[in-house]
């Protein structure tokens, strides 16, 4: 089978976890390749996500690495054998690959924890708000690129609307609610959308007011995507250079702690709803 030209983030993660198991076992890629009648180059392609691994190969590798964590092995097998084509595949070749990677990660998530400071969370955005966000890009996007971005963002909402839904907790700074990304009516409709979504049993929206003391977390924006096991979690961080997918254990632990810290600084869901109601009435 020819190598993939561009593996997805999920495929790369499978390869990363196989490499970590090999390194924990103290084995070199060439040693493992010899055991499997393969080559070092083929092992490198698997560990980089450019080549797939069958269930049999994943289990053989785990056995060679003396991995006794059956839950982890089963989770890696599920990652290797999942051939489902999600709705995001409709956008392949239309949007940058990172858009598809984010949607796929959310689809397989066991939970979603998000912190946003200056924008309303993507999963809660209205069509007009999303259009205003993407419409502000420089250089300006043509309609042929703007419309698919908005549609993709709206379809991501499936993870909190499906049955069963993915549990979603988000902490939003008051700044994100007050900044008028669109006009007054767009802002009012966006606040109503947040209120509506916060009524879902599996959605928790918490607000950090401007007058919160000792909050220095302006750089805390992130999305923590829960995996089938904690070690398979992923943290997404946006920057001017793009979206970073973080999954080293030290990074995951750092952002778990950061989310708890930011959440403690926020209002509880009921008081948060009261604040959103107040902001909507001001418009």
Structure write-up:
The protein is α/β, with parallel strands linked by helices and 283 residues long. The protein has a 6-stranded mixed β-sheet, sandwiched between helices. Helix 1 crosses helix 3, helix 2 (29-35) packs across helix 3 and helix 11 runs antiparallel to helix 13 (269-282). The mean pLDDT is 95. It is built from 13 helices and 6 strands.
Sum this structure up briefly.
This protein is an alpha/beta fold. It is built from 13 helices and six strands. The protein has helices at 9-24, 29-35, 40-48, 55-64, 70-81, 97-107, 127-135, 143-155, 158-161, 174-178, 184-198, 249-264, 269-282, and strands spanning 112-116, 168-173, 203-208, 222-225, 234-239, 242-246.
- Number of DSSP helices? 13
Name the structural class: alpha/beta
Widest sheet, order of strands: 3-2-1-4-5-6
Instruction: Summarize model confidence as the mean pLDDT.
Output: 95
Tertiary shape:
elongated
Major β-sheet, in short?
A: 6 strands, mixed
End-to-end Cα distance: 59 Å
**Stretches where pLDDT falls below 50 for ≥5 residues?**
none
Q: What's the number of extended β-strand segments?
A: 6
Helix coverage percent of residues?
40-55%
Overall radius of gyration: 21 Å
The topology string of helices and strands comes to HHHHHHEHHHEHHEEEEHH
- In terms of DSSP E residues, the strand content is 5-15%
């Amino acid at each position: 089978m020819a190598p993939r030209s561009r593996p997805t983030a999920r495929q790369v993660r499978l390869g990363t976890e196989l490499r970590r198991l090999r390194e924990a076992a103290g084995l070199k890629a060439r040693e493992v390749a010899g055991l499997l009648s393969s080559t070092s180059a083929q092992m490198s392609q698997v560990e980089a996500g450019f080549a797939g691994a069958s269930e049999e190969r994943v289990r053989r590798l785990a056995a060679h690495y003396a991995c006794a964590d059956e839950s982890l092995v089963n989770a890696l097998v599920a990652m290797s054998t999942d051939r489902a084509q999600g709705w995001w595949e409709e956008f392949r070749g239309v949007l940058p690959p990172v858009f598809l990677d984010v949607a796929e990660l959310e689809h397989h998530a066991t939970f979603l924890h998000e912190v946003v400071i200056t924008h309303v969370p993507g999963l809660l955005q209205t069509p007009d708000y999303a259009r205003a966000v993407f419409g502000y890009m420089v250089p300006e996007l043509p309609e042929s690129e703007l419309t698919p971005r908005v549609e993709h963002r709206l379809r991501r909402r499936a993870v909190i609307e499906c049955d069963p839904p993915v549990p979603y907790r988000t902490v939003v700074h008051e700044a994100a609610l007050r900044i008028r990304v669109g006009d007054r009516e767009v802002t009012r409709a966006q606040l109503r959308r947040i209120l509506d979504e916060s009524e879902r049993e599996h959605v928790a929206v918490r607000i950090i007011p401007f007058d919160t003391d000792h909050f220095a977390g302006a750089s805390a924006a992130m999305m923590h995507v829960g995996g089938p096991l904690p070690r398979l979690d992923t943290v997404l961080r946006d920057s001017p250079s793009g979206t970073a997918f973080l999954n080293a254990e030290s990074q995951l632990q750092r952002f778990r702690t950061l989310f708890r810290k930011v959440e403690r600084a926020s209002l509880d869901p009921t008081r948060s709803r009261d604040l959103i109601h107040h902001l909507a009435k001001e418009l």
